[in-house]
Amino acid sequence: MSVIAPNFRLSSFIRSILDNLFWIIVLVTLAGIPAVQIVLFYIEMPVIDGELLTPFLALTWLADPSRVLPIVKALMATDFFRIAVFPGFGLAALLAAGTIFVERKMLAKLQLRVGPFYCGKVEGILQLAGDGLKLISKEIIIPAKADKPIFWLAPVAFVGTAAAFVSLIPVAPGGWVVADVELGVLAVFAVIGFFPIITVLSAWSANSKFPFIGGIRALHQMISFEIPLILSLLGVVMLAGTLNLTGIVESQGSFPWIVFLPVGAVVFFICILAELERIPFDLPEAESEIVAGWLTEFSGMMYGLVQLGTYLKLYAFAAIFTVMFLAGWHGPMIVPPFPEEIITDGIVLGPVTATIPGLPLFDQAMLNGTIWFVLKTVAVIFFILLPRGVFPRIRIDMLLSLGWYKLIGLSFINIFIALGLLYAGVLGPGGVI
Amino acid sequence: MVGELAGDYGNILLMFGFAVVAVGPALIISRMVSPRRRSNPVKFLPMECGQVPKGEGRTHFMMQYYAYILMFVVFDVMAIFLYAWGGALLELPRSATLPLIAFLGIMFAAMAFALHQSRRRNIW
Fold it and tell me: N or C: which end of chain A has fewer CB within 10 A?
């Protein structure tokens, strides 16, 4: 009979927990609390109801349910909230997690399997959490002659770059974007340009043959498809007349650009597939030829981080497609307006009346925009996932000739379609539409 | 003015930093809770499908498609230059488009020539 932990002793287990507790308390007292105080000293606190919010007042008000909402609203207006939660990392990570689950289930259904089934009772809904726990408890093995600093840094930099990509996406009207930069489209290309570098660095640093071959393939593929990707978005920029992503979404108020530039949309979609290394363009990770391509030497949580970065990147590309061609947050108003009597009279429950200042928490347009944006993005993600169950992998020479001959030609045609629409007087200032 | 412009881009860096700070601990925690056994040196060898690895990891690798990389260096920059024109197209007079058409023609012809050269296996 095999024993899972032959040297297990309850006393030493309890002692290790107590040890950890001791060190946590010591570190929090000596470093944590001073750090919090230093941070609080430099943070500009908001003014609520004519009173400057101090940490003491904030803690007091948190105990009073009727005064929590102003604090929450003030928190939502900060940059940190945008970066960490709503249009930034939180939303992207949530959608990425959903994508992983849906991909596994959908792929299984396409191939007449069941997919994740046991973890979490209902259709394996907790499979992702289980995988995360498994990855975090696995040993990280680094090849003996690897370039250790770069090898450690690569997964973290990959996730960071993917997050920087996410930060450029406008999600809802009213400035719900992390970085609303003037040259948003160029910033997108700049961030995309880092992915091949990180890939090649990690592949080179691993000192192993399969990652090296995979890295070279990834380099060829990513940079070959970067030119059609850049050229296919030029038509949209020409018609919208701005490089700002928020401005591009606002220019699509009456119709999305996919109506006029379907060629560009198709080219951009194929380039997305290639940049994301998804089937049929998954040559850098071709598991039947070169083990796992440039991910071969990653183990444990490092592999998990690369996967997280990949899916953040997938969400970001799908969102860019939505912003560029599918009119972003525009859509019919489906969210009902917030009831006026709750704002004026408060909530009446029999004899008790609760007046809550600070309602409504979200404005109607923002909720509606978010819903439409997420729906469109999820639809695009679905179409990115779908080829995986259908297509085989193609050869690298087919891939390169597709990118360099056909897609670049089509994206030039797209530019001329946009020019023609503009100069025939259909679109643009003084146009028919 | 310049500072304001740069300040907008600062949020991208902040987001990068936040992601690094948020996922970095995953590696540290993983290093703390996972087993680390150094008993067998074989497991630190590079992966070569169960065989003992031969030769160096960073080998000289024949890149048959080197021409495409050279072309990328040229045409990526040219494609980005088009954005300076595309972003301001609505404010430009129509006569300003003709030189750009000529530029596109040069770019297209150069690309066709480069692609033709990249197909000639004997020179690479």
Answer: N
